[in-house]
Design goal:
With about 210 residues, the protein is an alpha+beta fold. It folds into 2 domains: about 5-75, Glutaredoxin; about 85-210, Glutathione S-transferase Yfyf (Class Pi), Chain A, domain 2, CATH 1.20.1050.10. Helices cover about 60% and strands about 5% of the residues. It has helices spanning about 10-25, 40-45, 65-75, 85-110, 120-135, 150-165, 165-170, 170-175, 180-190, 195-210, and strands at about 5, 30, 55, 60. Helix 1 links the parallel strand 1 and strand 2 (about 30). The structure holds glutathione (GSH). Glutathione binds near residues 37, 50, 52, 63 and 64.
Length: about 210
Amino acid sequence: MTMHIYGSKLSPFVMRPVLAARAKGHELEPEDFDGGIKSDAYRALSPIAKMPLLVDGDFALPESQPITDYLDRKLSGPALAPDDLQAAARMRLIVRIADIYLVPSLTGIFRRAANPEGVPAALAGLGDALGYIEHYRDAGDEFVVGDAFTVADATLIPLFFFLDVFNKSLGTGQLVADRPGLAAWWARAKASDLGSRCLAEQSAALRAVS
Ligand SMILES: N[C@@H](CCC(=O)N[C@@H](CS)C(=O)NCC(=O)O)C(=O)O
């Protein structure tokens, strides 16, 4: 593959397109960018200066979700959205809930050392976001939505990794356990080939920086 994706395997935003590519039968190995993501060269490709960044020939695309959608269209393999119009809409809604409700609360947990007072609100926000996702899933679905891996699985798996990481210190596992449909999905996702490989890679990347 002539494409490059820049970023760390610890990042849930990097792992989203990586998982999407794998689900379609392609390997996209995250690379470090020479000079780092704050370098002038990186900023010339992406003024946002965050990871991931996809470079496909002379096309440079930042942001996990547009990258994932691009790969879904560009790469051969199974489509990563349900055919059914309303199921596809729910899938996209769940991705959006993850990005605009779950991620900011998770960020509040990441910033716990600098802002310990923010932790209770972040935990409450996480619980709310998980509740929204539980609401919009069919509890009996094998994957996040429907009976096949979609962009929503690629989104949630590397984010839920951190709910397991913070379980010991902050009890975040209970927030998942309180939503039985989601808890059952997470148990299946962790046991799956794509899920277990992703979690092992994120764990190794976490150990490398701890
Ligand atoms: N909305 C972005 C979030 C990307 C993001 O926050 N990446 C983090 C790593 S997990 C990053 O690059 N942080 C470095 C920084 O903000 O300086 C996406 O979905 O790609």
